[in-house]
Design brief:
Layout: H1 9-21, H2 26-50
Amino acid sequence: MPLKKGSSRETVSENIREMVESGHPQEQAVAASLSNARKSKKHKHHRKLKHKHRPRSKKKRGMK
């Protein structure tokens, strides 16, 4: 079963539990679940920044 997306403590715990029940070692389950949570958090932050407009500076490069 694929890991659930999300970075909350509850989601990470569910992912660990699911992996251990399916036969993975606990250390591997913890590492995979935390890695998944970091990726989920990173993508969430990236989506927010992607749509914001950054104002450009009015200085032209190379001209003084």
